[in-house]
Amino acid sequence: MTDRLDDVLAHIDADIGHSLERLFRLVEIESISTDPAYAGACLQAAEWLADALSGIGFEASVRPTPGHPMVVGHAGGDAGPHVLFYGHYDVQPVDPLELWNAPPFQPKVVTGPNGAKQIVGRGTSDDKGQLMTFVEACRAWKAVTGSLPVQVSILFEGEEESGGHNLVPFMEANKAELAADLAFVCDTGMWDATTPAVTTMLRGMVGEEIVVTAASRDLHSGMYGGAARNPIHVLCNILDGLRDETGRVTLPGFYDGVGEVPEATKAEWRGLGFDEAAFLGEVGLSVPAGEQGRSIIEKVWARPTCEVNGIWGGYTGKGFKTVIPSKAHAKVSFRLVDRQDPEAIRESFRAYVRAKLPADCSVEFIGHGGSPGVRLPADIPALVKTRAALTDEWGKPCVTIGSGGSIPVAGDFKSVLGLDALMVGFSLDDDRIHSPNEKYNLESYHRGIRSWARILAALSEGAR
Amino acid sequence: MTDRLDDVLAHIDADIGHSLERLFRLVEIESISTDPAYAGACLQAAEWLADALSGIGFEASVRPTPGHPMVVGHAGGDAGPHVLFYGHYDVQPVDPLELWNAPPFQPKVVTGPNGAKQIVGRGTSDDKGQLMTFVEACRAWKAVTGSLPVQVSILFEGEEESGGHNLVPFMEANKAELAADLAFVCDTGMWDATTPAVTTMLRGMVGEEIVVTAASRDLHSGMYGGAARNPIHVLCNILDGLRDETGRVTLPGFYDGVGEVPEATKAEWRGLGFDEAAFLGEVGLSVPAGEQGRSIIEKVWARPTCEVNGIWGGYTGKGFKTVIPSKAHAKVSFRLVDRQDPEAIRESFRAYVRAKLPADCSVEFIGHGGSPGVRLPADIPALVKTRAALTDEWGKPCVTIGSGGSIPVAGDFKSVLGLDALMVGFSLDDDRIHSPNEKYNLESYHRGIRSWARILAALSEGAR
């Protein structure tokens, strides 16, 4: 296996220019899933991926859903276990567009401030660049050996960024086809630019949109100001009351199921040498927000939060308009950990909002998905092998970490398909995902491909 | 004078169709002052008015300012006093456009639910229809008698809806030209559809826009949520803290200079038979907001308020985006009464915001104008004559009332030109000014023209 792996790695190095060109083609497709105007582009991205998989010998197809389609591919392998790989081809919106230094869907390689080559464009890191590391690793194994070390199935979805509700039903409806021994989810990052990581702890999420209506029409604040209810005031009062002065979320039952992190784990985290001041300073901040008395790593990996992700109401254009609007809107998300129940928290939030509402106001709730947090046992053999492969590639011990982001599919793999999901990815904290000028380091891409080539080989060891 | 007035009134009745056509031409001009995209339309409206005044014998011209232009016209009269008439040709934005039943700048006459003919379109009531009542009254006097009963100067501005800062400097720079004995401001309403009114009490206003900046860029709420400051949270906390649980504004010094309304005045107001439930019910509300223990009339005419007129931040499109934005924005206005000092309140607000701000956040303030409240003495001879003329036209005693809206020019006439300003207008509470489907009753327009014809005659009585 070692000789074959060396050949595969050499092939990857020789072919990296073509691998990059293929990634560019995928990034150029404007697959913004949250905006219905881009539904055609999402389909185009799915078709591109199915074609790419078919081209390297997968039995691959685009699979319709009530929303954006799935891509499913299967390829036999030389040995077990059977691996199910997950990525998502959809991307975040690009607003505010004026802050991009170049068009977001015209990817290019630039040299960053630290000399590192960066692939810039929407989705380069989240998640097109990441999922392509795996596709290109399979391509290299196929090109060099004609087969894969282990049996591989692939599932790409197109609604990860839009809280789509079609993934679980699709899994439910295709349980037999998606059966495997373990899953890999490629939507997480390295610990830092030189330290590979497997993410074993993820936060879940509940998304809620609320619309508060007061008067039946917009009012002149001169004629009505001081007498008529202003829904922006109502909304601000509701949102401000979600957290107390110590940063804790006030919803009844919110912390049910949240366990304290063991001291041993906290000690491991301290060993990571995380620089809180640098983490905040990199984005222009200096004062930790949120719950008092906890480290930033604990807050982001192991504590739930509530964030207002959007708010709007009244006149928001240039100049001034003395209006008391009829409606005010907000998008609110809760990040969940451990055994918090997403639907219980959604109901607690809605009950809290209703209780705060004046008698003549009304509220509409729009649910935007919910998923529990995930914690992966440390002793899974595949995790041990994967850490070893990553340690070999990067020349530095692979660590296991948490992530504050929500990757619902990791929980869904467990609950629907019974699969443990190993979260392996190569993005970096400074990749500006969800923000203007998103990038993916060329090294992440190149060594990410090499990493997967090694992981596939490692998984087959001992299985034969 | 009486014979001549009867002839003028008959002429007005005969010519009302043409008067309406002329108003349509003015309403068709999209003179939205707050949006720079409509600067050309504002100039066009000014030119149209100057031409209209020139056409009836005024010495009229468009006068440039650093913003939208003024229109100034002068016409000699048969006797004193010398009257300075004010109106504004600019209008509010039309959003939300989808709630208009017809294009806002294509005026037409429709029959309302109560059978009254309504002129529908943006600016029909605020303020193009109103100012045209005076122009058409002058036109009738000129057509019938060849002159006006009193000397008239006219000042039309184009920044009333956008907090423009050019009116006072223009008055300062043209004090001699604008000298007169008293001013009329036509931007207020009747008490109800059958009861004419002179408004003698107006609220002032301070407009402020604030931009709270936390991180230097938008952040992913998974990677940063619970550790990084969310400027929407900061903004909601600031805005929610502006009022206490009794509805009072919390800013230090806010109520300095606010006198209690005398019991006698409150008794007069009770005599108006104002129906609080109907006032709120007409816009779908039932619970009075604002300060506890005060009537709605007192709240709107004689009490200051704070309203958030616009708020925005984060993702506000369709779907969901898990972002912690870098910035959050709000537009806030304070309605002022009595002797409240606009600039002192602006400073108190800014100091309050700064004091609430976390150490690593910053705030930008954008001032949107400020003006004090106005109270007019009840014994001015011109006020007595004007009330009598309005009583004659409408067949019902003219009342003196307050208005919750801000008409800064009324205060400016006093402070800059030393003129008392009588506020006379014919709009109704259901005119939907600043809202979709703004209208002006045809009766308001027709009898408004007749009212001004009578007022001009009444002012000349006793002056000869």
UniProtKB/TrEMBL annotation, chains A, B:
Which residue ranges does the record assign to the Peptidase M20 dimerisation domain?
203-360
The cross-references to Gene3D superfamilies, in alphabetical order and at most eight, read:
3.30.70.360, Zn peptidases (3.40.630.10)
Kindly give the Pfam families that the UniProt entry links to this protein: M20_dimer (PF07687), Peptidase_M20 (PF01546)
Instruction: Tell whether Protease is among the UniProt keywords.
Output: yes
InterPro entries the UniProt entry points to? Cyt/Met_Dipeptidase (IPR051458), Peptidase_M20 (IPR002933), Peptidase_M20_dimer (IPR011650)
Q: Does the keyword 4Fe-4S apply?
A: no
Question: Could you tell me the keywords of this UniProt record?
Answer: Hydrolase, Metal-binding, Protease
From the Swiss-Prot or TrEMBL record, give the protein name. Acetylornithine deacetylase/succinyl-diaminopimelate desuccinylase-like protein
- What is the organism field in this record? Kaistia geumhonensis
